[in-house]
Amino acid sequence: MSVARRIDDLPWTKHVGGHHAPVPFYLTRDMFGGLPVEIAAAELSAIVDRLVAAAHEHEVSEVYFLLSPEPGGAEIEVSVDGEVHRLVAPAALFVPARTRHCFVTKRAAPGSFCLGVLLRSGASDLQATESPSSS
Fold first, then answer.
1. Integer Cα distance of 32 and 87 in angstroms
2. Which of 7, 9, 25, 78 has its CA 20 to 30 A from that of 84?
3. At 22, phi and psi to the nearest 5?
4. At residue 27, what are phi and psi to the nearest 5 degrees?
5. How far is CA 105 from the centre of its chain?
6. How far apart are CA 49 and CA 96, in angstroms?
7. Domains, the chain
């Protein structure tokens, strides 16, 4: 007998403080008996130059993952405590817990996504670090 479990009715939408509309989630802490992460995601090509959330903060850390079918196919600007970070796909940005942030899509090819990964377990102790390739 398999212990694998499947969920087909994705995404689930949730209201998230600061966001102007319910947010589509592909993983939530309520799935599969309880998870330490949540993943929200949006296809970006329809929301270029549209702010989908006011500056807000979470009690947990978040990692933004910017993905596009082709390298360089999407660009977002993320404001973190007033400092703007420009991300070009593929890219990731760590936002510590209780830090004000928001993003706006500057350009996006169809099929480009921004994933917000909310780290629910032990994430407040994480520190952003540079990869060996960025030194």
1. 32
2. 25
3. -55, 145
4. -140, 140
5. 12
6. 25
7. 12-121 (2.60.120.10)
Q: Considering only CA atoms, which of 62, 27, 22, 50 is closest in space to residue 108?
A: 50
Please state, in angstroms and rounded to a whole number, the distance separating the CA atoms of residues 118 and 115. 10
Q: Which residue has tokens 């703007």?
A: 84
pLDDT band at 121 (very low <50, low <70, confident <90, very high): low
Radius of gyration for the chain, computed over Cα atoms and rounded to the nearest angstrom: 15
Give the separation between CA 26 and CA 116, rounded to whole angstroms.
10
User: Cα separation of 61 and 50, whole Å?
Assistant: 24
At residue 7, φ and ψ (nearest 5 deg) are -125, 125
Judge if the upstream peptide bond of residue 71 is cis by omega within 30 degrees of 0: no
Q: Count of CB atoms within 10 A of residue 92's CB?
A: 14
**Looking up tokens 């007033």, which residue turns up?**
82
- The two tokens of residue 130 are 């540079």
Query: In this predicted model, what pLDDT tens digit does every residue of 62-101 receive, in sequence order?
Result: 999 999 999 999 999 999 999 999 999 999 999 999 999 9
Q: Are 73 and 109 in contact (CB under 8 A)?
A: yes
